[in-house]
Design goal:
The complex is a heterodimer of chains A (197) and B (434). With 197 residues, chain A is mainly beta. Chain A is built from 1 helix and 10 strands. Chain A has a single domain (2-84, 97-129, 153-196), classed as Porin (Beta Barrel). Chain A has one helix at 2-18, and strands at 27-41, 47-51, 64-69, 72-86, 90-111, 117-138, 141-145, 149-162, 165-175, 183-196. Chain A has an 8-stranded antiparallel beta barrel. The longest helix of chain A is centred in the N-terminal third of the chain and has 17 residues, at 2-18. With 434 residues, chain B is an alpha+beta fold. Chain B has 2 domains: 29-172, no CATH class; 177-434, no CATH class. Chain B has helices at 6-21, 26-29, 102-123, 178-200, 232-260, 274-277, 292-305, 309-315, 317-339, 343-367, 378-389, 398-408, 422-433; strands at 32-43, 46-59, 64-65, 68-72, 75-77, 80-82, 90-92, 97-99, 134-138, 143-144, 147-148, 153-156, 161-164. A 4-stranded mixed beta sheet of chain B has the order 4-9-13-12, with helices on one face. In chain B, strands 1-2-3 form a 3-stranded antiparallel beta sheet. In chain B, strand 12 (153-156) and strand 13 (161-164) form a beta hairpin. The chains are: A mainly beta (197), B alpha+beta (434). Chains A and B meet through strand 4, strand 5, strand 6, strand 7 and strand 8 of A and helix 1, strand 2 and helix 3 of B.
């Protein structure tokens, strides 16, 4: 299934890329590969860099889309974290899922003459939602979801492109009332394919 | 027509952030009575997740309030714990909070038990003994024999705190074990009423509060002077230390049973101690306990054959203590069966008697001579006397009398046996006439 999906993605990207790149066309960036680090409280009672898990528990795979039109860039991203503590008798598993919508403005751009290679710098703002689920196994099982909370963020990202390849390095500061701590610095690198749309 | 510019968007977004930033987190908002879901013992044979109320919470992030305050891997200075409070994590559902990691679950559970034990202290008249909130150390790091102590809990008299060391087993973590928490809580009462008095009056040299404590060794300069020949005073000190440590552990186990109604509460966390620590008294063991002579003999053997008799005597604590725990548990359930009173009422009345007894022990130390030893049968005699005088449901009847006599008369020859009550007097008379 995954193979079919990525083959389709590659075909579509290549096809669209082959089209004459009109200046007024937007671009869609699909970036399924992601490494995300957050400096936040861990279950070991320390504040440390934590690497986020991927979609369906597959490391490095995550849902990230962006649409860019001229100086504007709109994004949608998902983040997922899962932490387990306890032993055979008492197991607590907390999963946090976050969805962020972003809007960015291009403040810097540099590209090669044929525009096959480019680098852009964006200032971004984000808004989204975060929800946690706790599964407790203790002589039985309980699964409870938190009330969803709003998430806000501001940050900056660098987007580099070569042909259909797109790489995004994103740094942002997240704020949510029930996060630990309430302000969390996030660094992410995403890799994917880009095509005109 | 309204034109939306970049600066408009930025201003709106910044305003949203500012509004959001002014909000307190759900944990900061949660004070007073806070509903949480924790794992507690719901019957002698089961633990499960339940929603309970934590009362008097002033800071849910640290689970601190009227009944407990926590320290993570604490140190100590003078007579108090030092270090940071662990940071708890909960998620909030519609109506209650759910701990989202192990440390938070431990904190909420211990807080809940401390709140219940404070209420029980009040019921038995011991509310003024402890200072609240109680200090609790989690993940306490204690190095012994070049490794870190694991799978244990103890009461530390010097800092007046309940300490939990890391739990590495696959059973119920000790910090979640209701019986063990009640056991350690009893040590705090016994320390303040008995041990402190004994140390002040130089009747013992070590803080024999518990064998789990790191206080089993006497202070510098207070070692046994000549192990081959103990002075009368040293002998009495060792005896009193051993007996106190034992009865402290026994009564603490009984406290664990009072709180949980589970005679094998230790088994949930430390199954290897199931047989030696169960509070179920087999028929053949009725009347058995470590007598004065047994303890004196043990001291002699250890002093003669070991370099560090105090360590050996510390390991002997449960041999001394468990028979008391079994006696007390059986005595309490007998009250339910013979006098048709509720188990809760019987527990309360017995606990009140124990509190009276340990208060009298504390007072005894001021009056005792340096060479005097506490009688190991003191508890049985005290209970018999109390039951004779009491106007409560615990008034002595024939069955109690037979049961108590087996302990009271254990060390005595027939002609010296005490007539605990009429039925016992009759029996002794019949025996004498034969």
């Amino acid at each position: 299934m995954k193979k079919i999906f990525f083959s389709f993605l590659f075909f579509l990207s290549a096809k669209v890329f082959a089209v004459d790149r009109a200046k007024d066309m937007g671009r869609i960036d699909m970036m399924p590969i992601q490494v995300q680090l957050r400096y936040e409280d861990s279950v070991e009672q320390t504040r440390q860099l934590q690497s986020y898990k991927g979609l369906f528990g597959v490391p490095l795979i995550e849902l990230n889309l962006a649409y860019q039109y001229k100086d504007y860039r709109f994004s949608f991203g998902r983040s997922y974290q899962n932490e387990k503590t306890g032993n055979q008798t008492l197991k607590i598993e907390k999963s946090t899922t976050e969805y962020l919508l972003g809007a960015g403005y291009r403040v810097f751009q540099k590209s090669s003459v044929d525009e096959a290679l480019s680098i852009e710098l964006f200032a971004n703002a984000f808004y989204g939602s975060v929800q946690a689920e706790v599964v407790t196994n203790f002589f039985g099982s309980s699964s409870l979801k938190s009330d969803p909370d709003q998430v806000f963020a501001v940050g900056t990202s660098v987007v580099g492109r070569y042909q259909i390849l797109v790489v995004e390095a994103d740094f942002k500061y997240l704020y949510s009332v029930n996060m630990n701590p309430q302000y969390v610095p996030v660094f992410a690198v995403r890799i994917g394919a880009s095509f005109y749309f | 027509m309204l034109r939306v510019s970049k600066s408009h968007i930025s201003v709106v977004f910044l305003m949203l952030i500012l509004v959001a930033c002014g909000r307190k987190s759900a944990l900061e908002d949660a004070t007073g009575d806070v509903p949480v879901q924790i794992g507690i013992q719901t019957s002698p044979t089961s633990y499960s997740l339940q929603q309970v109320n934590l009362s008097g919470i002033s800071n849910l992030k640290e689970v601190s309030g009227s009944y407990a305050r926590f320290f993570y891997a604490p140190g100590s200075e003078d007579n108090h714990l030092t270090g940071n409070a662990p940071q708890a994590n909960f998620i909030r559902t519609n109506s209650f909070f759910v701990p989202s990691d192990m440390v938070s679950m431990q904190m909420a559970t211990i807080y809940y038990h401390m709140q219940n034990l404070a209420a029980f202290d009040k019921v038995i008249g011991a509310e003024g003994i402890n200072q609240w909130p109680r200090s609790v150390g989690l993940e306490t790091q204690i190095i012994e024999n070049n490794s870190t102590r694991r799978n244990n809990a103890f009461y530390n008299g010097q800092t007046d705190s309940m300490m939990f060391v890391p739990f590495t087993g696959n059973e119920l973590p000790i910090s979640m074990n209701a019986g063990i928490i009640a056991h350690e809580h009893f040590h705090s009462l016994f320390y303040k009423i008995v041990i402190r008095a004994a140390i002040q009056n130089k009747k013992i040299l070590v803080n024999a509060a518990s064998i789990h404590s790191d206080e089993t060794k006497p202070a510098e300069g207070l070692q046994i002077s000549d192990p081959t020949g103990l002075s009368e005073k040293e002998n009495a000190q060792l005896f009193n230390e051993t007996y106190l440590r034992g009865i402290n552990e026994g009564m603490a186990d009984f406290w664990g049973w009072i709180y949980t109604s589970d005679a094998s509460f230790i088994n949930w966390s430390l199954p290897e101690f199931e047989d030696s620590r169960t509070l179920n008294l087999e028929d053949y063991a009725v009347g058995y306990y470590e007598t004065d002579a047994n303890i004196k003999n043990k001291i002699q053997v250890l002093v003669k054959n070991t370099k560090d008799p105090r360590s050996g005597l510390a390991n002997y604590a449960y041999t001394v203590g468990t028979p008391y725990a079994r006696f007390l548990k059986t005595f309490t359930t007998m009250q339910v069966e013979n006098k048709k009173i509720a188990l809760g009422e019987a527990k309360k009345l017995t606990a009140q008697m124990i509190f009276k007894y340990i208060t009298s022990m504390g007072a005894q130390f001021s009056a005792m001579k340096e060479t005097e030893m506490l009688p190991t049968g003191g508890l049985f005699n005290f209970i018999a006397q109390e039951m004779k005088m009491t106007k409560t449901a615990l008034a002595l009847n024939d069955k109690d009398c037979e049961f108590l006599a087996k302990y009271i008369n254990k060390e005595l020859t027939d002609d010296k046996k005490i007539k605990v009550c009429e039925v016992e007097a009759k029996k002794l008379a019949e025996k004498a006439s034969r």
